[in-house]
Design brief:
This protein is mainly α. It has 13 helices and no strands. α5 packs antiparallel against α6 and α7 runs antiparallel to α8. It is globular, with a radius of gyration of 24 Å. The N and C termini lie far apart (92 Å).
Length: 282
């Protein structure tokens, strides 16, 4: 009886040489140009060519998948979350959330700044679509990760605390909301040039007081919050640019709602003046 020598290839399962043996995902063989992709996305959105923006994102996602670029896919899914959230497309936004979370686990980068940022993006999607419970799950995870990393970006931390407060407020958990509004203010007060963000927080606090105690019961608190917001918006030396106009438009309805019609009208006038001046300089 003759014997046959077997090669390893005869009895071993075939192995994908460009796949991660732990996950089965293709290894990163090249990287997509993420900054160029983001710049082009902003260009599409500025022109309000949202169909073009979606095609742009879809093309580069296919490229990242073909190249086995997991980090590129992760970054794109974060961009897609924001894009579909702004377009009001719930199903596509949540699908991007789920895929970003999956990729975060594959990449094992959850306990990093990029992981925490992903959780913030996920929470913002759910907050936009009025799912505060899901929003808080992601915001709380982001807060835990940032704390573990001793994260020092005060602007991003302040924004996170404000978002958490809004979610608690939507759930009717007003004491918890005030805790996070206070954390947001304490953080922003340490940051030079954050007067407009603080003003928005004070207006949110006025809303929270009104919801918790009613307009009559919270009238004194509301007046105090409005006065603080007004003083911050009127801070001498603030750059009267497009962002200032945006904040004026954002804050005007709050003052109008609580009866300060003259100041609401003044904010609308300031915004219009800035926009008209910008058009005139084109």
């Amino acid at each position: 009886m003759s014997s046959t020598n077997l090669d390893k290839a005869d009895y071993e399962e075939p192995v994908c040489l460009i796949c991660d043996p732990r996950t089965g995902e293709r290894k990163n063989t090249s990287s997509i140009p993420m900054q160029r992709i983001v710049d082009k996305l902003e260009e599409y959105c500025t022109l309000k060519d949202f169909a073009g923006a979606e095609r742009h994102l879809g093309y580069w996602l296919s490229e990242a998948q073909a190249q086995g670029d997991l980090r590129g896919q992760f970054s794109l899914r974060n961009e897609m979350m924001g894009f579909y959230r702004k377009q009001g497309e719930y199903d596509k936004a949540v699908a991007s959330v789920n895929e970003a979370v999956r990729l975060m686990q594959v990449l094992d980068n959850e306990d990093s700044i990029s992981g925490a940022t992903c959780h913030v993006n996920c929470g913002t999607v759910y907050d936009t679509f009025s799912e505060p419970e899901n929003a808080l799950l992601h915001f709380t995870k982001a807060e835990e990760i940032f704390a573990g990393l001793a994260f020092k970006d005060l602007f991003r931390l302040g924004s996170l605390y404000n978002n958490m407060a809004l979610a608690y407020m939507e759930l009717g958990q007003y004491p918890e909301a005030f805790v996070y509004y206070a954390k947001a203010l304490n953080t922003m007060e340490q940051l030079s040039g954050s007067e407009l963000e603080q003003a928005i927080t004070y207006l949110n606090m006025a809303d929270c007081s009104a919801l918790e105690k009613g307009l009559d019961g919270a009238s004194g608190e509301i007046s105090a919050y409005l006065e603080k917001a007004k003083n911050l918006i009127d801070t001498e030396g603030l750059n009267r640019d497009g962002y200032y106009a945006f904040v004026c438009e954002k804050c005007s309805p709050g003052f109008n709602c609580y009866g300060d019609f003259d100041y609401a009208e003044e904010l609308d006038r300031r915004a219009a003046d800035i926009y008209n001046k910008a058009k005139g300089s084109e």
